[in-house]
Hints:
six-stranded mixed sheet; 25% strand
Amino acid sequence: xxxxxxxxxxxxxxxxxxxxxxxxxxxxxxxxxxxxxxxxxxxxxxxxxxxxxxxxxxxxxxxxxxxxxxxxxxxxxxxxxxxxxxxxxxxxxxxxxxxxxxxxxxxxxxxxxxxxxxxxxxxxxxxxxxxxxxxxxxxxxxxxxxxxxxxxxxxxxxxxxxxxxxxxxxxxxxxxxxxxxxxxxxxxxxxxxxxxxxxxxxxxxxxxxxxxxxxxxxxxxxxxxxxxxxxxxxxxxxxxxxxxxxxxxxxxxxxxxxxxxxxxxxxxxxxxxxxxxxxxxxxxxxxxxxxxxxxxxxxxxxxxxxxxxxxxxxxxxxxxxxxxxxxxxxxxxxxxxxxxxxxxxxxxxxxxxxxxxxxxxxxxx
Length: 365
């Protein structure tokens, strides 16, 4: 066959080989599947931003549905009822039970959960008149002590430990604030585990764990949810509320990197800088740059959370230099492949033919 022992063949046979190679490569290129161009990348495939946990607005993690001024089960209140005949009315301290009621001396059971202090005063006064206990009483209700909830906060937090937080303000934001805030190594993913009703309020926690992907919670009963601090709107606001025995685990930040391979001088893993973007051309530069100036085609293989199959994003080195949208922001786990193009393969084939087939006496390049 003419292609066998090519370096011993005539220039005519060498030219035939190169022509056949070009035809084969062009045919192969025409069979490629449809891909997504970097300049037309749909929003759902755009790389996410990686903000520092310390830049997150913790107020977005509050349960706004909880009114801090309203009474709730477990609160201790002081009730004074004056008929106008007493020299100094006595304050009666009563606790709101789990049903939201208080047992007011002389008056009896009155539901006060969800009421402000002013509303509770009016209701107790109305009930005392309706039940014919007083004619025209003056009622005063004061908040003596809020019910406290005990929650534990561990992981990438400034002061890990167990904290008591007023029940009416016991949410994720309050727990993180009580523990001194997030550390610089905190990830943006937080796990909340709450015990089932009627379970002991103290759960077992392992303080010795090194794998940030594993939860240190040894008690596997109860409800567990994960919250992305950068997208709190994906959770219902009531999910931010913590109950007695809840455990908040702030994960350590996982290393984020991309992989650069193909026609680069030093294929390698490239770390994404903290609190900064990593662009396509920067990653190629950090891998030593292109191994040949003729390398143009770039494929980025991306797998995003929640999507089963990866996608291929195509661009070229020249486009990435001229157009910012083609110089992609990279996502953790991206594989950047500087690929051989038809033109590059043809160039290498011709150079190989003339370098090794004809000999060094006929330098072409």
